[in-house]
Write a structure and sequence with these properties.
Layout lengths: L7 H44 L4 H5 L7 E4 L5 E5 L3 E2 L9 H11 L11 H13 L10 H10 L6 H17 L2 H11 L6 E2 H10 L8 H10 L14 H17 L5 H8 L16 H15 L1 H6 L3 E4 L3 H30 L1 H4 L4 H6 L1 H7 L1 H4 L11 E9 L5 E5 L11 H4 L9 H9 L8 E4 L4 E3 L2 E3 L10 E4 H6 L3 H11 L1 H10 L21 H12 L3 E3 L4 E5 L5 E4 L4 E3 L3 H17 L4 H4 L7 E6 L5 E7 L3 E9 L11 H4 L1 H11 L14 E7 L13 E7 L44
Parallel strand pairs: 1-5, 3-4
Antiparallel strand pairs: 1-2, 5-13, 6-7, 6-18, 8-11, 9-10, 12-15, 13-14, 16-17, 17-18, 19-20
Length: 745
């Protein structure tokens, strides 16, 4: 048989088939490789994407940023700390109309999907393709919540995938009701407010539980474009109305409301009552609150934690004090401005009428600041400052606190940190030491010229009015703020003894044992002095000042509450006697203007004015409240001749104390056991006898041994510790030629 011989065409065909097979096989392996690489890449991408998703713990413990509220003693909101203005409200207090309105316009299949709405996605794709761009979104409420809580608004495929995956996780962690609750408390609704409660309070001045159907529809319509549809932008009222009515129509379509209700509601005008932000009351006080909470709990807890901080501040009294301070500062500043012009003759140099200069002082001074800066420090313009502290004497609660003229200009809290000379406001410490070392309110001291040797040579102190009273009681000397008596009593008791008492009562700063200490040659803060004076009002017990009653977290758990910190500093008898002595200041001494200004309750206190009128004080108290007022200039410059504590401080004190006593019973200082009353002769200051023409009642310790008058009949023993209630006729002395500055009084 002849061998089969393959033709060349057949051989060629076989070769081509083999080659084609190799190509197909190669393509298969390439496809397989690419598919595997794609799967691997996709898996790696999904793995990395999954790694960026919130953890299960984060999912199960969503804590939204909530406003921290600061409440006054009347439970009113006086301040807020926040990054996002949001108040939490449980779903039970969110009206069904609002819940349904949001679902109708934002996610009508909310209760039927599992985080993402596939049907809505395909519908949105078709709409967007037909319109040639982005015309309709497909994010569900759950997706929006995921984005608002965990993600950013940056548009990208990666962010969208994370949003979808996070939404699915949320649906596995929470019920639909819980998701809706979280969403309604999280969503941004324009004007810097977040959540339906904050929006309700801002736009309508009511809680969201009180919203009408029309208001619910309006809020729901805000979600799409909050700033565009804000109801407080009345210029866009037609656009806002249209958006609200779209929501109503959506609710009608879902048969949530009937057609008649939808139509009638759509005819209503858009109305809103804007709630203005909480005014900045007690800014120096709030800074104390801020610093305390920030230091103890951290800034995140302060600004995002939703705390409720219950404080001691009395908002009504604080307002009254701030208004009074503003008026008094304006008056003091005018005086300082006139002093400046008198010193510099700036109005003449600039050829500006004096009245015009004073009327536009700040602007003219600023315009010529470079020229005025060359003036000596002694005549440069200074700003008047006032600080106020008011305390509940029994608890130490700070009811009013003002640290200066303007917190924005200067955050230095003068009420707490300004160390100033107290002037005659220091004298009560001298007399406190005296009462506990043998003196009585009726003890006699001779008010006469004295010369003392000091490290700087001879010192001839004087009384403020350059008048010497002769023999005078301790009571009258304190009431009239007699310098020379206080100095002599200090020398008798001992400066170190007086310092010990002042320290015991809370004065912390350096005090030198020199005669001038008796008239305030030391330093103290308004808080220290006020707290010390509260001891007299509280029967010798000092309650440490505080400003926070309690702090409650977002869940109602009390994080801390105030614990009283009290200590007995003086005997009840000494405290009562000192309160009685300082009542004389108010009734007929340097504080006698107080009743005429409108405060007629039993009160006690002491004025203080330092050399050259650089500091003006009044610290006074009732059985319920102690209040201290200081006025001065930071640079320790004079406020002006005659600007005493009576003039600069007492008006503010009165305007602060009146509202603080609203609703409080009228009380006098209770007399403790161990105190007796005796009638003494108004001339000899001894126990009256049958011949004495006039007697006055004075308080003494029960163990005090009293002598009988030896002037009017009889032969009683002449004592040295009994004095009349009011002073003897004044003995005038010609003004001293000593060129030394007037001393404190």
């Amino acid at each position: 048989m002849d061998p089969v011989i393959f033709s060349s065409d057949h051989t060629k065909s076989a070769s081509q088939g083999k080659f084609l097979g190799m190509i197909i096989l190669s393509l298969f392996f390439v496809f397989l490789f690419l598919f595997s690489a794609s799967v691997a890449t996709g898996s790696f991408f999904l793995y990395r994407l999954y790694q960026t998703l919130p953890t299960l713990n984060q999912m199960q413990n969503i804590e939204q940023r909530l406003v921290t509220k600061v409440l006054g003693r009347d439970k009113s909101v006086i301040h807020e700390f926040s990054i996002e203005k949001r108040y939490w409200v449980p779903i039970e207090k969110i009206p069904m109309d609002l819940q349904n309105a949001v679902i109708a316009i934002e996610d009508r299949r909310f209760y039927r999907h599992w985080g993402i709405d596939v049907k809505r996605i395909f519908g949105a794709i078709i709409v967007n393709m037909s319109r040639g761009g982005y015309a309709q979104g497909f994010s569900t409420i759950t997706q929006q919540l995921a984005r608002n809580v965990y993600l950013t608004s940056h548009k990208s495929i990666t962010r969208k995938l994370r949003e979808v995956l996070t939404a699915i996780q949320l649906e596995s962690c929470y019920t639909k009701r819980e998701i809706l609750e979280l969403y309604l408390n999280q969503v941004y609704l324009g004007a810097g407010v977040y959540g339906v409660e904050a929006a309700s309070e801002y736009y309508f001045s009511k809680h969201c539980s009180e919203l009408s159907l029309e208001e619910c529809a309006l809020l729901a319509g805000l979600i799409q474009l909050p700033e565009r549809y804000r109801p407080d932008k009345q210029a866009n009222i037609a656009r806002i109305t249209q958006r609200r009515n779209i929501v109503l129509k959506a609710m009608e379509d879902l048969k949530i409301i009937d057609r008649k209700t939808a139509s009638q509601t759509a005819l209503l005008p858009v109305e809103c009552r804007i709630t203005q932000p909480v005014p900045g009351k007690g800014q120096y006080f709030m800074e104390m609150v801020r610093k305390y909470v920030s230091d103890k709990y951290g800034d995140d807890m302060l600004y995002n934690g939703g705390l409720t901080i219950h404080t001691t501040l009395d908002p009504v009294a604080q307002d009254s004090a701030e208004q009074s301070c503003a008026r008094q500062i304006a008056s003091l500043q005018k005086r300082l401005n006139r002093i400046f012009l008198d010193s510099t003759k700036a109005d003449r140099k600039l050829k500006i009428k004096r009245e015009t200069f004073l009327a536009s002082f700040d602007s003219i001074y600023a315009l010529h600041e470079e020229e005025f800066s060359k003036l000596p420090d002694s005549i440069k313009l200074r700003q008047a400052q006032i600080s106020v502290v008011a305390l509940d004497v029994q608890t130490g609660a700070i009811r009013v606190l003002i640290g200066g003229r303007n917190f924005q200009e200067s955050k230095f809290n003068r009420a707490l940190h300004a160390r100033r000379q107290p002037g005659s406001a220091f004298k009560p410490f001298v007399y406190t030491a005296a009462l506990e070392n043998g003196f009585t309110p009726a003890s006699v001291v001779l008010d006469q010229p004295i010369t003392l040797m000091t490290d700087n040579g001879e010192w001839r102190p004087e009384n403020y009015n350059k008048v010497f009273n002769g023999p005078i009681t301790i009571r009258s000397a304190l009431g009239k703020s007699v310098n020379l008596v206080a100095i002599q009593v200090l020398n008798k008791v001992g400066a170190h003894t007086v310092i010990d008492y002042a320290r015991r009562m809370g004065l912390k700063h350096e005090m030198n044992p020199v005669p001038a200490l008796a008239i305030g040659a030391c330093q103290a803060t308004p808080m220290e002095l006020t707290s010390a004076y509260s001891i007299y009002a509280n029967g010798g017990i000092q309650a440490k000042p505080y400003w926070i009653e309690k702090i409650v977290d977002r869940n109602g758990r009390v994080l801390e509450s105030h614990t009283p910190d009290e200590k007995e500093v003086l005997s009840p008898q000494t405290a009562f006697l000192m309160a009685s002595l300082m009542k004389t200041v108010v009734c007929c001494g340097t504080g006698a203007s107080i009743p005429g200004l409108g405060f007629t309750r039993p009160a006690a206190g002491k004025t203080g004015t330092t050399n050259d009128y650089s500091d003006a004080w009044f610290v006074g108290f009732t059985p319920q409240i102690a209040c201290g007022v200081w006025a001065g200039v930071d640079e320790r410059r004079p406020l002006g001749t005659g600007v005493t504590g009576s003039i600069a401080a007492i008006p503010v004190w009165v305007r602060t104390m009146i509202p603080l006593h609203e609703g409080l019973p009228v009380k006098d200082f209770p007399r403790p056991e161990g105190i007796k009353t005796e009638t003494i002769c108004h001339e000899s200051h001894l126990l009256v006898n049958d011949q004495c023409p006039k007697g006055v009642v004075e308080f003494f310790l029960e163990e005090s041994v009293l002598d009988t008058c030896d002037i009017h009949g009889g032969r009683g023993k002449k004592g040295d510790n009994m004095m009349k209630l009011f002073s003897t006729p004044q003995i005038e002395k010609k003004p001293s030629t000593d060129k030394k500055k007037r001393m404190m009084f």
